[in-house]
Design brief:
- The structure holds two protein chains of two kinds.
- Chain A is α+β, with helices and mostly antiparallel strands.
- Chain A has a single domain, classed as 2-Layer Sandwich (Alpha-Beta Plaits).
- In chain A, 22% of the residues lie in helices and 34% in strands.
- Chain B is α/β, with parallel strands linked by helices.
- In chain B, the strands form eight sheets. Chain B has a seven-stranded mixed beta sheet with strand order 5-4-19-18-17-6-7, sandwiched between helices.
- In chain B, helix 2 (112-125) crosses helix 22 (538-551) and helix 4 (168-178) crosses helix 16.
- The chains are: A alpha+beta, B alpha/beta.
- At the A-B interface, strand 1, strand 3, helix 2 and strand 4 of A face helix 1, strand 3, helix 7 and helix 25 of B.
């Protein structure tokens, strides 16, 4: 089961933001929602946490993005391994 | 047909869309409802003191999803990387699930009955040598139960929380300036300030949601000037307009420099000072009375001015390394009454061997300049633990406090408390108990050498990793068979390694709870899932031991009327034996304990509302006062007439718990002093310790979360590239960091996340395999008794080379 996160993207006051939506739509694993003012919702999904983080970082680095906050995480994933006490 | 992955994606997008709408409308909106069999409820996050609210999604008895709570004013739907993984903290595969007793060096499973009996017998054997070490992660009812048990039942004050290690200097700062603990302002100040000064406070990583709240103002086009005053560059620096890097321990000089300029340029606020302030300095005889260091000696304005005379910008530059011009910039900001200035601080001021004075001086420059009492004008300390304020400070689980801001040393306060607890007069001991460092020192010292603590019960904290100078204050317990350590926790930790008895605890949404965050906000949640195995609530553990002692005839476990100290009755007036675990949730024990505790809250005007009001709210900030129409109103800005109902009409500002009993706050003078241990030829580096974004404190929960563990798998030492080059260290190479307390081998991180200046090192404390507190100093502030974790002298060497 892929991991999913809901992101709140804060857009900068910048004309470069115009190309942002297209970039998101073309990226695999990213589903952008409808913008509300200067805030754009998005869902990202990936097979593992590292890939999810890559997507997050990729969005944060896009021109016109001021900040990316995570607002939802689903971890209904029984395959996740947890580290134990290891002095 | 909709697939599960589609559902998850839609749920994530719905939550993000709700957050976007809330941001755009600048108003909370209910989060998108989702079904798929998931039941949602609210809870504050388990981790830091910010007090974000999360929506917890539960399915089939398991927490399966987390969302930021759109209805929560604190976080407005946002969470940090720890917060959105908080649900996984419950599901580490090595959860403790049954009581364990050490026999022949091995922890073996035992029954709860045997565990309760063992503790009871240990207490009965040496009741005055029993101590409780608690936590700012205790829920309010848990802390209240422990406090009542030991102070009102056993007649001993040997109880202290781990908040001694993080917030004690903030407490003594507030008490000695305003006569009452905790900030006057709140997070709303972050929305209103023109200037935010972060004093030794890496807010971007330690309180990321609050920082995001400020950064969000910038994305809206508002101007807010960020000033980072620190000893190393961090993520906070990257967002700041000004970065002032100071020599460790010289922050007091900087604040004196600001005050000096405000007076020199006649740019302070004489009307505010005249009307609302008195001046104080350290008492000539700090031992004259126990409270002398908090009361201080009066000084005139002229004396204050003279004391500040040496702190010219140039002199401060020499002491601190901060250019004189930057000191002038700060003073000019404070001189401008058109600006709103908020100061925040956390461990930089508090974990400081002059922490009380650092707190006092920060309040002082706000008072001197009149930057106080308007939204956005506030000196505000931030807490590290979710209920350091609510439980450790307000409930009074420190060794010198009674609930609601009362003092052990005050006979009237003891009498009031005895009355509210319905225990015989004289039950509460007039003698202050051992504070944290002393408690552990006494526990680790053999009885025949003055070690007067024999049995120590730790709940909800990990002192085996978080105490300073661990060899002396914790590890010395090893090999002392007459010392008995009881640990209630959810996972194995460095503390359970030396425990004689381990009790498995329920955590967070596995039990009912209440927390109190940094801005005086009391929060409530209900149990949502059951704890694993035989894990049980911490409050139940305390009440069960109290009951066993009662049954064994300990007189302290009865009140004046011969009733058990923890008597609970249901709505029909029938007594419920909650000490029997199957009956514990027959009624809401939290509610009963909270309603009893609430009676204590009026004395210091920290009024709490009835329990049910918190059920409805995402927290309420005290004082919460009932209105004529019966509703309950929280208070955002204390001491200010426009908001605080306890301020007299026409007073404008009233410090109604004033130390000097004249409704005035105190502006203190305190000199800049040398640190307890400074670099020298043998140990030429400053060593600072602290936290990282991904892990919370000792990492006992966050290291069990795979995503967080993967993001930050181990500790490291940050070093300046030039220092590394001089020593021939390559990035990632294992090196040895040594202090006078010991040494630690760990990888060096050059130009990593943080950037210490030359001659400085930084090590985070989350990693149980690389415990930096093996080598920290542990020198304490003489007033607050809080240790300094932020500076000691160290040296470095290649791991293979002899030091």
């Amino acid at each position: 089961m892929p991991l999913t996160s809901g992101l709140l993207i804060s857009l900068a006051h910048d004309e470069r933001a115009f190309g942002l939506r297209q970039a998101l739509d073309e990226k695999e694993g990213v589903t952008a929602g409808l913008p509300e003012g200067r805030w754009l919702p998005a869902a990202i999904e990936a097979e593992d946490d590292a890939r999810l983080r890559e997507l997050h970082d990729w969005i944060a680095a896009l021109p016109g993005v001021a900040f990316v906050d995570v607002v939802h995480v689903n971890f209904d994933d029984p395959t996740t391994a947890s580290p134990t006490y290891s002095p | 047909m909709i697939q599960r992955r589609d559902f998850n994606r839609m749920a994530a997008l719905a939550a993000a869309s709700a957050a976007a709408q809330a941001r755009a409308q600048n108003a909370p909106s209910a989060a998108a409802a989702s079904n798929d069999g998931i039941a949602w409820d609210k809870a504050p996050c388990r981790f830091c003191g910010t007090g974000c609210h999360v929506r917890v999604g539960v399915k089939n008895g398991r927490v399966v999803a987390i969302e930021g709570d759109q209805l929560a004013e604190v976080n407005k739907g946002l969470l940090c990387v720890k917060g959105y993984h908080v649900g996984l903290a419950l599901y580490g595969k090595d959860r403790l699930t049954q009581p364990l007793l050490r026999r022949n060096g091995v922890l073996e499973p035992i029954s709860w009955e045997e565990a309760i009996e063992t503790i009871s017998q240990k207490i009965l054997a040496t009741p005055d040598q029993f101590a409780i070490y608690g936590s700012g992660q205790w829920t309010i009812p848990e802390g209240y139960a422990a406090n009542k048990f030991i102070k009102g039942g056993l007649g001993s004050n040997h109880i202290d929380p781990n908040a001694r290690l993080c917030m004690a200097s903030a407490v003594t700062g507030f008490l000695s300036v305003y006569g009452v603990d905790e900030p006057a302002g709140c997070y709303d100040d972050l929305d209103k300030c023109d200037v935010l000064i972060m004093w030794g406070n890496n807010m971007a990583e330690m309180h990321p949601v609050l920082f995001s709240r400020v950064i969000d103002r910038r994305t809206r086009g508002e101007k807010v000037t960020l000033i980072d005053i620190g000893t190393r560059r961090t993520r906070t620096t990257d967002f700041s307009d000004h970065y002032l890097e100071f020599r460790p321990h010289s922050d007091l000089a900087i604040m004196n420099g600001i005050a000096h300029l405000l007076i020199k340029k006649n740019a302070f606020d004489p009307k505010f000072v005249e009307k609302f302030c008195n001046f104080r300095q350290a008492p000539k005889d700090p031992n004259a009375t126990p409270t002398a260091p908090l009361l201080g000696d009066a000084m005139s304005f002229d004396d204050y001015k003279a004391a500040l005379e040496p702190y010219t910008p140039e002199h401060v530059e020499k002491l601190s390394g901060v250019p004189a011009e930057k000191i002038r910039v700060l003073a000019d900001l404070f001189a401008n009454k058109d600006l709103r200035i908020t100061s925040t601080w956390c461990m930089g001021f508090n974990q400081h061997s002059r922490g009380t004075n650092a707190n006092r001086l920060c309040h002082g420059i706000h008072l001197l300049s009149g930057h106080f009492g308007r939204p956005g004008d506030a000196p505000t300390s931030l807490t590290g633990q979710p209920s350091a304020c609510g439980t450790a400070r307000e409930v009074g689980t420190m060794c010198h406090f009674l609930p609601g801001g009362r003092l052990i040393l005050n006979p009237e306060h003891r009498k009031e408390t005895e009355k509210l607890w319905n225990v015989p007069e004289g039950r509460i001991s007039p003698k202050i108990g051992h504070h944290t460092v002393l408690m552990w020192e006494k526990f680790c010292t053999p009885a025949d050498k003055g070690g007067d603590i024999q049995t120590l019960w730790v709940q909800v904290t990990n002192p085996g990793q978080s105490l300073p100078n661990l060899h002396k204050l914790f590890k010395a317990k090893a090999g002392q068979p007459d010392k008995f350590l009881i640990v209630s926790d959810v996972y194995r930790t460095a503390t359970t390694e030396l425990a004689d008895l381990v009790l498995p605890s329920a955590m967070w949404v596995e039990k009912n709870g209440m927390y109190g965050n940094s801005e005086r906000r009391t929060q409530q949640w209900f149990r949502m899932v059951k704890p694993p195995g035989e894990a049980r609530d911490d409050a139940w553990q305390m009440i069960a031991v109290a009951r066993r002692l009662h049954d064994l005839g300990h007189p302290g476990m009865k009140d004046k009327n011969g009733r058990f100290l923890f008597t609970f009755k249901n709505d029909q007036g029938e007594e419920v034996p909650v000490w029997e675990w199957p009956r514990y949730y027959d009624l809401n024990v939290d509610k009963v304990l909270f309603e009893e505790y609430r009676l204590f809250s009026r004395y210091k005007h920290k009024d709490l509302a009835p329990y049910e009001e918190y059920v409805k709210a995402r927290g309420l900030r005290w004082p919460v006062v009932q209105q004529q129409d019966g509703t309950w109103r929280e208070t955002k800005f204390r001491f200010s007439e426009f908001d605080d109902p306890y301020v007299k009409k026409g007073a404008e500002i009233q410090f109604y718990h004033s130390v000097t009993k004249d409704d005035k706050a105190l502006i203190w003078f305190a000199p800049a002093e040398k640190a307890a241990e400074e670099p020298d030829a043998e140990f030429p580096f400053w060593l600072c310790t602290g936290r990282v974004l991904e892990h919370w404190h000792t990492g006992s929960m966050t290291r069990r979360i795979p995503q967080l563990h993967a993001a930050m798998p181990h500790s490291y030492v940050e070093m300046h590239p030039e220092d590394a080059r001089e020593h021939g260290f390559a990035n990632g190479e294992s090196i040895v960091v040594k202090t006078r307390r010991g040494e630690l081998k760990l990888p060096v991180w050059i130009d990593g996340r943080g950037h210490p200046p030359r001659g400085s090192l930084f090590i985070p404390f989350f990693d149980e395999r690389l415990m930096c507190n093996d080598i920290t100093l542990g020198d304490v502030d003489p007033i607050s008794k809080e240790p300094d974790y932020k500076k000691c002298a160290a040296t470095v060497a290649r791991a293979t080379a002899a030091l």
